[in-house]
Amino acid sequence: MNITIETVTPENAAEMLTHLVPERQRKLSVKVVENYSRMMKAGMWKLTHQGIGFDTNGELIDGQHRLHAVVKSGATIQILVAREIEGENTIDALDRGEERRVGQQLQLRHGFTKGRDVAHLCRQLLVVLCASHWKQAGKFNVGYALNVYEAYADEINFVLERRSTTKGLRSCNLLTACVFAMGAHKESMRDFYSKITNTVRDEDKDNAAYALRKYLRQNPVFTFKSEMSGIKTILMCAMRFHKNEPVALIREGEEGYNFFLESQREKADKILQQCGFID
To answer: Disulfide engineering: 13 pairs with which of 31, 46, 67, 105, CB 3.0-4.6 Å?
Structure first.
């Protein structure tokens, strides 16, 4: 087996793909290709021991998604290429390992004591940001997590340090919505989150934070239609709280999301650019 580190252009990648026998490979995943492509365009792709593999017959047996991503992104990357891999059924041993989860990597390699919580929160924040351009967040990775965390570190640390132990008040939907809202109006939204997670005083019982707190406690296992549905419902209450308006009905709506987005659209777009979702 011969192993080299090579500079692969879109043209090189297209040529390598001509050595692929489709019926002897997994079905191509468009989502994986799109994810890799975004990373390459954003300069997030790293040279590792994982790369492209050709057997002794010159057949491409590993790396079709990486190569398709090079073509799609138009990027030139450095990648490890192994040729003359011996063994007719060598492919049987490929991709057998357990995938490293983002939270594990944040904790083991980046010094986060709450790696899993940070990863989950950053993933949902990316979903919220992608919705501003009608994009799908797709497969999450460490690079995305670090870009989101850098932009919202103070807000993320604030909610995680004060996360409630009460069922119904510790959901990631609540934390995500409050972090996003704090990105636009930090002080009022810190007060909003604190009023939801702390013991309610009599003078607070007429505001939107109390209404949401009561609702979440009465529905501790309530399932929203989707992550975004739950987040947008909470953002509606957050907007009412910021405007000092009462909440007669807990409901989903676009107004709250758009209200907080407009005050931080530049930051949202910067994160999406860093992650390769927009140009």
So the answer is: 67
Give the mean pLDDT per block of 10 residues along the chain (279 residues): 94 96 87 93 91 93 95 96 80 58 91 96 98 93 96 98 91 96 97 88 74 86 77 96 92 95 97 94
Write the DSSP assignment of 146-186 as a string of letters.
Answer: HHHHHHHHHHHHHHHHT---STTSS-HHHHHHHHHHHTTSH
Hey, which residues does 82 pair with through a beta bridge?
3, 53
Structural domain range at position 64: 2-86
Q: Are residues 206 and 265 both part of a single domain?
A: yes
Does residue 198 sit in the same domain as residue 255?
yes
Answer yes or no: do 137 and 67 share one domain.
Answer: no
Q: Tokens 């993933």 — which residue? A: 123
Whether 184 is covered by a domain: the verdict is yes
Q: Residue 83's beta-bridge partner residues? A: 2
Give the span between the Cα atoms of 233 and 256, in whole angstroms: 8
